């Protein structure tokens, strides 16, 4: 057998920056939605106290960590590399993450194509995915959100306008 040259993936600076910014924004939006949206608040209420989950990219890609505090509040912890995590949602590589978070592929489709790995409890993973879907519907215009989620919800006008506005405002100011 001949010698094989070791291949290393390219730097992909644009994708890394985009993914890092998206994770930062989505992490803050999860916290904002937990305060403004009753469905997200209900999902977090069902999770155990001190529950921590991470969404990240293989190998050694950016990630976000979110925790439900003992008081019931949801807190975005940034990348938190030393944090003990109960549930890891990991996307196979930067290209797969870019497909999902540039809304070219929905989360269920990515899951069906084995781009998403879950390390932790399945009920908790399903709750986190439901939270991510609601957050995406709040953050994105309808024509893009329809691409990102399995079923676009039929919410009241109040929820589409006032709650969405509160999620955006709380995300931007970090409250």
Key attributes of the depicted protein:
Nonspecific Lipid-transfer Protein, Chain A, 175 residues, five-stranded mixed β-sheet, 7 helices, alpha+beta, 5 strands
How would you describe this protein?
This protein is of the alpha+beta class. The chain has one domain: 2-Layer Sandwich (Nonspecific Lipid-transfer Protein, Chain A). 51% of the residues lie in helices and 14% in strands. The chain contains 7 helices and 5 strands; from the N terminus they run ααββββααβααα.
Topology:
Layout: H1 13-36, H2 38-46, E1 52-57, E2 63-68, E3 74-76, E4 87-91, H3 94-101, H4 107-112, E5 116-119, H5 122-139, H6 142-148, H7 157-173
Helix pairs in contact: 1-2, 1-3, 1-5, 1-7, 2-5, 5-6
Q: In summary, what is this structure?
A:
The protein is an alpha+beta fold and 175 residues long. 51% of the residues lie in helices and 14% in strands.
How would you state the average pLDDT, rounded?
88
Strand portion, in percent? Answer: 5-15%
Spans of 5+ residues with little confidence (pLDDT < 50)? none
Overall geometric form: globular
Can you identify the CATH superfamily?
SCP2 sterol-binding domain
Within the largest sheet, what's the order of strands? Answer: 3-2-1-4-5
Q: What's the SSE pattern?
A: HHEEEEHHEHHH
Span between termini = 60 Å
Please report the total strand number as a whole number: 5
Rg over alpha carbons: 17 Å
Instruction: Give the biggest beta sheet.
Output: 5 strands, mixed
What is the annotated CATH architecture? 2-Layer Sandwich
CATH class: Alpha Beta
Structural class, from secondary structure content? Answer: alpha+beta
Quote the CATH topology. Answer: Nonspecific Lipid-transfer Protein, Chain A
Helical segment count: 7
Helix content: 40-55%
- Tally of distinct domains: 1
């Amino acid at each position: 057998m001949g010698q094989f040259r070791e291949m290393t993936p390219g730097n992909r600076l644009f994708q890394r920056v985009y993914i890092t910014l998206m994770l930062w924004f989505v992490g803050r939006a999860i916290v904002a939605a937990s305060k403004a949206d009753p469905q997200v608040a209900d999902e977090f209420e069902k999770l155990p106290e001190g529950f921590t989950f991470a969404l990240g990219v293989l190998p050694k890609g950016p990630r976000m960590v979110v925790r439900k505090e003992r008081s019931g509040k949801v807190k975005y912890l940034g990348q938190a590399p030393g944090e003990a995590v109960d549930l890891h949602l990991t996307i196979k590589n930067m290209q797969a993450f870019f497909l999902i978070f540039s809304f070219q592929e929905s989360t269920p489709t990515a899951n069906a194509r084995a781009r998403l790995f879950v390390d932790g409890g399945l009920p908790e993973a399903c709750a986190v995915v439901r939270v991510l879907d609601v957050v995406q519907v709040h953050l994105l215009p309808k024509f893009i959100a329809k691409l990102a989620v399995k079923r676009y919800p039929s919410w009241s006008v109040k929820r589409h306008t006032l709650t969405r506005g509160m999620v955006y405002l709380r995300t931007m100011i970090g409250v």
